[in-house]
Amino acid sequence: MVFIDDADQFPEEFPEGCADEAKSWPLGPLSLALYNHSDCARELVAAVLLLCDRQEPEVGWVINHFLMLLRRMLITSPTRLWLRDLLESGLLRALILMTLQCDPRLKPHVGYFLIVLLPASLVYFRTVVAYRNALKDVQDLLSGDALKQTPWYREGICRWEEFLTLADERLEVLTAHQSSSFEAQKACDNSECGSIGESSSLRRCSGCRAFYYCSVQCQRNDWELGHRNACRTHDRLLLCRSFGNFPGFFPT
Ligand SMILES: [Zn+2]
Ligand SMILES: [Zn+2]
Fold first, then answer.
1. 197 is in which domain, residue-wise?
2. S-S: 183 plus which of 54, 75, 78, 198, CB 3.0-4.6 Å?
């Protein structure tokens, strides 16, 4: 850890053309090298998790350093990072352990994950699945009242309670979605109608098999309004499915 401290001093002078944002949150040479390989984000979380188990006072400094870097990667990295990857690497356990240890240097990071990053990412199906698995892994930490007794939890500083309530709601949606009781809702594709119903109650266009209508009349109207042409060309639009491999394009 002394080595990291020595090796990663922030530069005293910034290179010409350096962005203001980078100046306000500078990276030392070690952090810069890690930042340029944002694939290492999972390893950073694993390292934080390991360090959380150590009691030496200087550990908090290194964790602080790693979390700053991780946050910067999440916000600015050219390679899109997903919270679900970090949840699979032990992020939730690390956040709980940091809360139990209450190192004031780490409070802004824990708060940022719980208030900003995780709530925003729990709208994605795979992130909620990753969260559900992560939750099973931390039952040993959540089974008692230890977390609720921490000052950060009691004083609502990191908004643990709000986060856990929100996450529970998203888990309920996931469970409903995965059970047979859930049926997808669709809107009538006649733009002059747009009424919403369960997909099985709507009629599907037999030509493109992609447009849905609430009635024969709506299907006729939309045919005249332009679906006559759109139906034929729909297959060509399906080429855009190749973007499914493009990170962030279809965040499922
Ligand atoms: Zn309709
Ligand atoms: Zn059609």
1. 188-240
2. 198
C-alpha 197 – ligand 1 centre gap (Å): 10
Residue 249 domain flag: no
* Distance between CA atoms of residues 246 and 122, nearest Å: 20
List pLDDT tens digits, range 91-130: 999 999 999 988 888 999 999 999 988 998 898 888 999 9
Q: pTM, whole model, 2 decimals?
A: 0.65
Instruction: Assess contact for 97 and 54: CB atoms under 8 A.
Output: no
Q: What is the pLDDT of residues 160-191, one digit of tens each?
A: 999 999 999 999 999 988 886 667 788 999 98
What's the CA-to-centroid distance between 132 and ligand 2, angstroms? 39
Compute, in angstroms, the gap from residue 228 CA to the centroid of ligand 2: 7
How many angstroms separate the alpha carbon of residue 230 from the centre of ligand 2? 7
Are 63 and 152 members of one domain? Answer: yes
- The DSSP symbol for 14 reads P
Q: Which of 212, 213, 98 lies closest to 158, judged by CA?
A: 98
What distance in angstroms lies between residue 214's CA and the mean position of ligand 1's atoms?
Answer: 4
CB 145: neighbour CB atoms within 10 A? Answer: 9
State the distance from the centre of ligand 2 to the C-alpha of 32, rounded, in angstroms. Answer: 52
Residue 93 domain-assigned (yes or no): yes
Residues 150 and 119 in one domain: yes
Same domain, 215 and 145: no
Instruction: Tell me whether residue 246 is in a domain.
Output: no
